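Need a sequence for this fold. Nothing fancy.
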């Protein structure tokens, strides 16, 4: 007997936090990681700091040491190669800096989109690469501004972060979401896209506000139009290449995409 074909509404939208609903360009996260490394006498490049954005922060720190320059700088300062205990310490310092420095203001358009989904009866959840203390702070600041996801998950909850799908699975289990192919994952990094695709969800990449663009809101407004368009095009290309079903510039641009996905679902087409 064949399985019943789902023809119904969007079940839920699962948003990333930094670079998607807050922290334009992931500048706060980049600065916190930079500060943790510089405190230990190592000065990674902007590219090093952004290369693995979106994975669990401990893994992102580990990835920094894939750079020969970072490894050599660590040895020059500490007289030995970095060890696991060093990564754990850097992770603790990262959390401390992140809790102090990151902007928690919601990005433009987040609240109207949240309200639109609420009125449609579409449920909202979040996942993040941040550790639990940072997630709790984001949830608190988001709630004060009117952004109230039903469930949220981080790598501390699942033991593994992106690109694995387990954070999406956890929020889906908490919210009793089914089928997952009627859910949407929205995020700004390659890892976000891979997470959503791994979970079997529709996946939307957000180009201009996130890590792939790599620019804060104030800096973005000062960019020459040609450079802004070029950066945005490159960001869209990377997110699309990662497997995003759709790529938008900013979160409000998701509205027509949600409508397209809704029509696909009503015809019985789940994410694939």
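Here you go.
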């Amino acid at each position: 007997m064949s399985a019943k074909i789902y023809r119904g509404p969007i079940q839920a939208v699962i948003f990333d936090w930094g670079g998607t609903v807050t922290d334009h360009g992931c500048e706060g996260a980049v600065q916190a990681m930079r500060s943790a490394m510089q405190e230990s006498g190592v000065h990674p490049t902007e590219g090093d700091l952004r290369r693995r954005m979106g994975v669990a922060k401990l893994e992102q720190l580990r990835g920094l040491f894939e750079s020969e320059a970072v490894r050599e700088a660590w040895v020059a300062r500490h007289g030995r190669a970095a060890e696991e205990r060093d990564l754990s310490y850097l992770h603790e310092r990262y959390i401390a800096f992140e809790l102090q420095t990151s902007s928690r203001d919601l990005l433009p358009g987040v609240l109207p989109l949240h309200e639109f989904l609420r009125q449609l009866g579409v449920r909202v959840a979040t996942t993040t690469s941040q550790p639990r203390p940072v997630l709790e702070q984001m949830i608190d600041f988001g709630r004060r501004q009117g952004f109230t996801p039903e469930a949220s998950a981080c790598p501390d909850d699942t033991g593994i972060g992106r690109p694995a799908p387990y954070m999406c699975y956890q929020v889906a289990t908490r919210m009793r979401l089914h089928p997952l192919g009627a859910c949407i994952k929205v995020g700004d990094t390659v890892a976000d896209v891979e997470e959503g695709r791994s979970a079997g969800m529709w996946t939307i990449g957000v180009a201009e506000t996130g890590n792939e663009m790599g620019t804060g809101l104030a800096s973005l407004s000062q960019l020459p139009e040609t450079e802004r368009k070029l950066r945005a095009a490159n960001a869209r290309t990377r997110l699309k290449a990662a497997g995003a079903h759709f790529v938008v510039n900013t979160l409000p641009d998701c509205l027509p995409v949600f409508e397209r996905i809704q029509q696909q679902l009503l015809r019985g087409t789940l994410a694939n």
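For context: The chain has two domains: 12-26+104-266, 28-101.
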